[in-house]
Amino acid sequence: MPVKIRLQRHGKKGKPFYWVVAADSRSKRDGKFLEKLGIYNPNTNPATIELNLDSAVQWLHNGAQPTDTARAILSYKGALLKHHLDGGVRKGALTQEQADEKLAKWLEEKTAKIEGKSKGLSDAKADARAKALEAEKKVNEDRVAAAKQAEAEAAAAEAPVAEGEEAAAEPANEENSEETQA
Questions:
Q1: What dihedral angle (degrees, nearest 10) is formed by the CA atoms of 43, 70, 99, 61?
Q2: pTM score
């Protein structure tokens, strides 16, 4: 029976969530499977991947062929590296301790890289939030300044009109007084 390591889709429309499974290649995509090896959630950033490394490597030793996406996931989590190192141990090229040491070193580097990406994303999000807050404060300050300016212009417009009426009334009185004197 040809076995494939592949993804089985779950989740609702537009929000996919996958199980990584070992299944008979003749079964349906979301049909029967032999063993659930882990989960893959592409909706998060970085994508959430939980994988039972030992089970995945055991299936690879037994001849299971991963699909392209499953191969990328297995490579990302180190299952293909462990499978490769176990092949070296079987051939006598290196000892089990050396293989475990190489795998542990690789996993530490990978974990540091993932944490660095997560930290970078959270820093970028915090910077964007701070910039948005500063922009909002600036808009509010501009709005308050514009309101004060409008009030000042309104007050200035009312004052000259009152002064203008008084000034217009005075020359009229002067004209009348001139006419009466003549």
A1: 150
A2: 0.67
